[in-house]
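Chain A, query sequence.
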Amino acid sequence: MKIGILTISDRGARGEYEDRSGPLLVKILSEQTPWRIVEQAIIPDDFDAIANTLIAWSKAGVHLILTSGGTGFAPRDITPEATLSVIDRETPGIPETLRAESLKITRHAMLSRAVAGIRGQTLIINLPGSPKAVRENLDVLLPILPHALELITESPDSEQGHRTV
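Chain A, predicted structure.
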């Protein structure tokens, strides 16, 4: 599977601060999955830049795009809106579960507006910008991602997880 890591931050894109969530995503995914990180970028909180990057990466065959940042209440936090503009189908169970699990750790989780969805054969999931929250969210996501990606890419083994013995 091919993975893209997209950090969305005005200050990060201008080089005013070091992105820590993107490299953390790369580190965890590289250590815990056999998948290849084929795209990685830091872009500003700009609707067109976000949407165009998501479209380009999905057209290029990236199977999973994890975004980090732009999911809160600040006026320029528009990652969810840009994501919704490019997906074909929402996957509400993913952000609902991430918020529910995060609420066990911090009440601030209820301020997340993150979304997830499918564009063609690409799963796009918005994550918070905080490295701590990224790690916590990946702990929840990693067990289900292999099966989700098998289903999206119509892997011959994708239905194995649905069969009973």
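The chain has one domain: 2-162. Helices lie at 10-13, 21-32, 47-59, 79-86, 93-103, 131-141, 145-152.
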